Amino acid sequence: MIDFRYLVVTIISIFLALTVGIMLGAGFVGDPLARDLEDRIKTVQTEVNQQREQIDQLRAQNRTLTEWAQAVEPWAIEGRLAGEDVVLFTVDGADGGVIDGTINALEGAGANVATQINLAPKFALESQPEADQLATIVESVEPEPSDVRMDAADALGEGAASLARDGDETTESGEGSAQIAYSELLRLLEDEEFVSVVRNSEEGDVVPSGSSFVIAGGNATAQPFEVPAFVRRLSSELTAGETDVVVTESSSSQWDMVPAVREDDEINETVSTVDTGESALGHVALVLILNAPSSTPAGHFGTDEGTRLLPEPPPEE
Questions:
Q1: What is the mean pLDDT of residues 281-297?
Q2: pTM of the entire structure?
Q3: Domain that holds residue 293
Q4: Do residues 206 and 163 touch, judged by C-beta distance below 8 A?
Q5: Are the CB atoms for 26 and 33 separated by under 8 Å?
Q6: Are residues 90 and 203 in the same domain?
Q7: In this structure, which long-range contacts are made by residues 166-169, counting pairs with CB atoms below 8 Å and at least 24 apart in sequence?
C-alpha cells in the first residue's frame, strides 16, 4: 500500500521539477524572445511616431490651405454671377456650413437666389396618411410611399425645369400660368409641411427664366429621409431646364447625395457635384461651375477620388 505522505511528496517533487525545467528553459530561450519583442515594439513605436508627425504636417498644411481659401474666396467669386438667377433646394437638417455658406457664396458672387425650397423630414412618409397627403398634392397613383416620394421629386424638378427653360408659358393642360401652377404646388406642399419656401421677392417669378439650380445638403448625422434617391431624381428632372444643375454636399456628410449622382451614368455627365460644400474651396468651386460658359460639360470637384479641386476659371473677356 502506498503511503499518502509519500504520494504527496512525489507529486510536489514532480511539480517542482517541472517548474525548474520551465525556468531553465526560459533562461536559454527567454532572452532572445524578449529582445525580439522589444525590437518589434520599438519598430512599431517608431512607425507610430512617424505617422503622427505626418498627420501633424498634413493638419498644418490643411489649416494653411483653408486659411488661404477663406482669404481669397471673396476675390475669387466677386461679381462672377452678377444678374444670374438661382433656385436653391436644401434638405432640412443639413450642416449649416453648407447651407449658409452656399447662400453667402451665391449672393457674394452677385447672384439672385430667387427661391429657396427646403425639403422637410416629413418626406420620410412614416405613416400612410402622410403618404396619402403627398400623393394627393402631386397627383400620384403609386401605392408605395417610396414611389410617391419619387413622384414628388419629379413634380418639383419637372415644374422648375420647365419654367427655367420656357418661362411663364401656359401649363401643359393649357389651363393657366405655369408660374402660378408651380407656386400653387409649393403652397400645397408648404401647407402640409413637406417644404418651407423662402422667396427673395414676392413680386418676382418663383423660378425665373434661365435660372440655374443648386441642391445643397449633407450632415454627419442620419439623413431625414431617403435623400440620395430623392436628389438623384430631382437633379435628373432639373437638367431638362437646359441650365446648370449642381449638387453640393459637406465633406463629412453621411447622406451620399454627391455619390448618388456621380455613380449614376445617366446624370453624371449633366449634373455637376461638389463634395466640399461647407468650405471656402467648395464655395469657389460652386461659383466657378455656374460662371462657366453654357457649353462647358458637367464636372465633379472636391477631394474625393477622381475629382479636381476647382474648375478652370473662364477666360477673361
A1: 90
A2: 0.79
A3: 83-301
A4: yes
A5: no
A6: yes
A7: 166/209, 167/209, 168/205, 168/209
